[in-house]
Write a structure and sequence with these properties.
Strands 1-19-16-21-14-13 form a six-stranded antiparallel beta sheet. A six-stranded antiparallel beta sheet has the order 2-3-10-5-8-12. It has seven helices and 22 strands. 16% of the residues lie in helices and 31% in strands. It has one domain: Jelly Rolls (Sandwich). The protein binds 2,5-dihydroxybenzoic acid. 2,5-dihydroxybenzoic acid (GTQ) binds next to strand 3, strand 4 and strand 10. The site of 2,5-dihydroxybenzoic acid (GTQ) has 10 residues, from strand 3, strand 4 and strand 10.
């Protein structure tokens, strides 16, 4: 090969489908993670009128789901909200059905507004109220129906960016628009919600929690029972994780869901984690620094916190407490031994 120049060797190996690692090494191996996602806030009150607009112009016969995707400016194609996770806001109007389907992506809904809708999950009608967390783990049939009045809106969380990156995304229509009820309404929540009293006649069918709905009333009770008797975590205040009653672990293999309560005057210690996180303000006004940006979260807003970004939470500007809902890809990172979390100096 002495007769060819080095430049020719580079172009020849490219034609042969090879590249020199030494010219790419620094792009592939970083001292620390570099998220393509950017810190970003979505204002619920800004988006809400457009949600309502589409209820007038788009029927649910025309759309699989009426959802506004919250697309991170750094993750437009394929769209994602943070690495491996998606957030969307879904709206369904009285009398509408969102047809039955299933997908390998894990999903949950956190209810923002409205009453008297339910999701049928594998034959069980699971009713929704604001603040409830409903699970539709991967490959569970689900359709939504609204039998009440007024718009019903919720935050959808899915891991399809992850399932698609693994090239393991499957999707299937049920056939009929809705499933028949084949299990008593809200049965899984009634059986499992007590947590420390599990049914012995059941055996786990999937790695995900069998609970259809973690009702807000129980979350409130848990927060009230703890009250102001603990400081909680230095960075995130009183943090409660929704758990799988079989394992005590996260609700789904790729997504964990938590409630954070920042007591009045809370000023959090900065921290970072390789987990990519999405925050949703349930009540109160929080200030959240992510990287170099400071966000004021109004109730119902949604915030993307990219992995390994420095973040700091506080509610010093209000005399009320703040409650946030948070979900992340922490369980997936933990399973792959990629989870690193640390507190930082102020
Ligand atoms: O409600 O089943 O936001 O399938 C995205 C995909 C919601 C749902 C989304 C979905 C759903």
């Amino acid at each position: 090969m002495a007769e060819i120049t080095t430049d020719q060797a580079y172009s020849q190996i490219t034609k042969l489908g090879a590249e020199p690692l030494w010219r790419h090494y620094g792009d592939l191996f970083h001292p620390e993670p570099r998220s393509a996602a950017v810190p970003h806030r979505w204002s619920f009150s800004d988006l809400r009128p457009y949600m309502l607009h589409f209820t007038e112009t788009l029927s649910l016969e025309e759309a699989e789901r009426r959802v506004l995707m919250l697309v991170n400016p750094g993750l437009a194609d394929p769209p994602a909200t943070v690495n491996s996770l998606f957030a969307g806001i879904q709206i369904i109007m009285p009398g509408e059905t969102a047809q039955a389907h299933r997908h390998t992506a894990n999903a949950f809904r956190f209810i923002i507004e409205g009453e008297s809708a339910y999701t049928t999950v594998n034959g069980e009608r699971v009713h929704m109220r604001p603040g409830d967390l409903l699970l539709t783990p991967g490959w569970h049939w689900h359709d939504h129906y609204h039998e009440g009045s007024g718009p019903m809106m919720w935050l959808d969380g899915l891991d399809f960016p992850l399932t698609n990156s693994f090239e393991a995304g499957f999707f299937e229509l049920f056939g009929d628009r809705t499933q028949k009820s084949s299990v008593p309404d809200d049965f899984s929540s009634r059986v499992y919600i007590h947590g420390r009293l599990n049914p012995v006649w059941e055996t786990p069918q999937t790695a995900s929690s069998p609970v259809g709905n973690y009702p807000w009333s129980e979350t409130e009770r848990a927060l009230a029972a703890i009250g102001d008797d603990v400081d909680g975590s230095e960075s995130e205040g009183v943090v409660l994780e929704y758990t799988n009653p079989w394992t005590g672990g996260p609700v789904m293999p790729t997504i964990d869901c938590r409630i954070l309560r920042l007591r009045p005057g809370f000023v959090g210690r900065p921290a970072r984690t390789t987990a990519s996180t999405i925050l949703h303000a349930v009540r109160g006004r929080a200030t959240v620094e992510v990287g170099d940006t400071t966000f004021d979260l109004e109730p119902k807003d949604i915030l993307a916190v990219p992995g390994w970004a420095r973040y700091r939470l506080d509610c010093a500007s209000t005399s009320d407490d703040v409650v946030l809902f948070a979900y992340s890809n922490r369980p997936a990172l933990r399973a792959l031994e990629l989870l690193r979390e640390e507190a930082l100096a102020d």
